[in-house]
Amino acid sequence: MDLYNIEDPSFLKNKSEDELKEIAQEIRKFLIESCAKTGGHIGANLGVVELTIALHKFYNSPEDQIIFDVGHQAYIHKILTGRINQFDSLRQYKGLSGFPKLSESEHDVWEAGHSSTSLSAAMGIAKARDIKGEQFAVVPIIGDGALTGGMALEALNHIGSDKTKMTIILNDNEMSIAPNVGALHNMLGRIRTNTSYNRIKYDVEELLSKIPSVGSSIRGVADRVKDSLKYLVVNGVFFEELGIKYIGPVDGHSFHDIERALKSANESSGPVLIHVITKKGKGYQHAENDEIGTWHGLGPYKIETGESIGSGGTMSWSEFMSNSVFEHALKDERIVALTPAMPVGSKLHKFQNELPERFFDVGIAEQHVVTMAGGLASYGMKPYVAIYSTFLQRGYDQVLHDIDRQKLNVFFGIDRSGLVGADGETHHGVFDLTFLLPLPNMVVVMPRDEKEAKLMIDFAVDYNGPIAFRYPRGNILGVDMNEERSEIELGKWETMQKGIDITVISYGPTLTDVLEANSALKEKGISVNIINARFIKPIDTDLITEIAKSGQPILVVEEAMLTGGLGALVQSYVMDHDLGTTVKRIGIDNTYVEQGSVSELLEEVGLTKENIINKVLEILSNEKK
Ligand SMILES: Cc1ncc(C[n+]2csc(CCOP(=O)(O)OP(=O)(O)O)c2C)c(N)n1
Ligand SMILES: CC(=O)[C@@H](O)[C@H](O)COP(=O)(O)O
Ligand SMILES: [Mg+2]
């Protein structure tokens, strides 16, 4: 079978099981080879090869709506819907997205990137279908990790009570990114190991099918026996009690078993959940043996050895942050660390292994993690919540209502602040300032390099109140740790270079570009006053006033949304206090930034040394007029 000839999934309809197995094998081989070059979410995809093929054989996409939760496991779906030729560009600039994308194919009916949205989306689609009197199938596929997300549970609550027809595929591989956690995970584990129920249930169903309809009273008794079995051996009771018919566990690598379950689900008039058991990384030894979560998603690798290509170098920001907080925790018993399912990305292993009683992986539960940190803080602890900027969006009300309003002593490590690269528009950490800066009690900081990070971590640990500590994806800028630095003082900025023509204010790693632009501007005889706004909030109002009174125009450069960013704060301060000086900004202007390498994306949004130079020249030339 030439995978490159696939245009749509209809070719699967008349394939025999042996042929399907062959296709699965070819797809696996392709995925392993292709992701070795581009990187990507290989582990999750290798686990759903048979499942995705079986779904596309059984259903008629796009009329039947197949909805992938998170969407990181939709590569096979992309291959079966005619996109194999684009895999060379997977997750690259202008290339094939790593997630379902409406603009890529009519078969992508729902976009995601963040987890646990599929069931709510499915409910909406199913309701629209019913209101319009249409008949198609609605099939959300949700992982055991994504099922721990609060939204998924809210949706189950609604779907079960409403009895809306849909077939939910629960893809249980026992892994979130890291090994999955929580009581739901434990419950699924019990079901997986409880084979006796499954055997009895199938036997009883088999028996029931043989009872003729005339024997209705016998059949009634038998039905009740079958129903009561679930109470005896607990399988699926959780879902059944919610009003959702449970089928499973089903071997997710067996075409026969999946098809049998899909047929059975299809006959039901209400919601059904098929519990499918799969192996993450299936068919590729390195990914299959992964017990940590490294193979969930990664960059290019060597196929034979599984070694990563091109990673390494200096320490990542995440590792530096987590290790530094861990060092503090060894001395300060108030410090506890929390993560919503991201111990791998946030590099919390040291904390997790050495201080397990003060470490909490709460699963994909951003709202819960924030408020739980509040509870810990309210009782004298110093919680460190390592959370990706993009996922903190989920916990915003909790940050506002529970933490900031009560001035609780929570230290947020806001990982992946700024542009993240290949994951694209669902994952860039560029909105957090817009939602954090209005909070009256929140302090927001972002260090520019390793030395400043160390000083700021010391500050944040000592600080008593909510503090958001932003840091980007990628490696930390290493410097001489003995270098002299001005003391970190709440709301005070650092003057990195005194100048007389224009002030450029920035923070974090973007300052490197500002410093580079400065070298070129110096050659043109322009003297730049360079300010490190290490506190993005509170801003240094004394310094802004002093600069404005000196008559210098100001340029604020930031890797964040312009709306509600630092530049906006500085502009309003200058305006509100009639300081009269010009304030211009470079940042992300009212757009969702796509996927690509961070440098390509910085170029696209104008966050480059060249653009800073041009903007400075433009401002100075306008000032002269
Ligand atoms: C709201 C949110 N939090 C965290 C993540 C990061 N994340 C992406 S996939 C994933 C694990 C999902 O596990 P599961 O649903 O079981 O899928 P699997 O990879 O095992 O197939 C996590 C935590 C996310 N995408 N969205
Ligand atoms: C799909 C998802 O949300 C995660 O797998 C994400 O891709 C991880 O990103 P990092 O590689 O930055 O940890
Ligand atoms: Mg999983």
Automatic annotation (TrEMBL):
**InterPro entries, per the entry:** Dxylulose-5-P_synthase, THDP-binding, Transketo_C/PFOR_II, Transketolase-like_Pyr-bd, Transketolase_C, Transketolase_CS
The protein depicted here goes by the name 1-deoxy-D-xylulose-5-phosphate synthase
Q: NCBIfam families, per this entry? A: dxs, PRK05444.2-2
Q: Which cofactors does this protein require?
A: thiamine diphosphate; Mg(2+)
Instruction: Please tell me where Mg(2+) binds in this chain.
Output: 144, 173
The organism that produces this protein has a lineage beginning with: Bacteria, Bacillati, Bacillota, Bacilli, Bacillales
A matching Pfam family: Transket_pyr
* Xref: CDD domains: TPP_DXS, TPP_PYR_DXS_TK_like
Q: Give the E.C. number(s).
A: 2.2.1.7
Instruction: Pinpoint the Transketolase-like pyrimidine-binding domain residues.
Output: 315-479
